[in-house]
Amino acid sequence: MNRFLILAGIVCLLAGLGWQWLLRFPFGRLPGDVHIVTDGLDFYFPIVTGILVSAVVSVLLWILKH
């Protein structure tokens, strides 16, 4: 538990320090993300972004586990 809290703190610190750099990354605007705009409706479903984030988190957790 202590190791997880320390790791979570380091991740939050790095995300905070690199926030401006992270905003330039095209997360949320990747090809395959669904964005439908019609009269009175603005629907956005970031499916590819979700899959990419899930894969990265899974790999990181697998690396930390082994």
Automatic annotation (TrEMBL):
Keywords: Membrane, Transmembrane, Transmembrane helix. Pfam families: DUF2905. It comes from the Bacteria. InterPro entries: DUF2905 (IPR021320). The chain crosses the membrane at residues 44-64. This is DUF2905 domain-containing protein. It comes from Paraburkholderia tagetis.
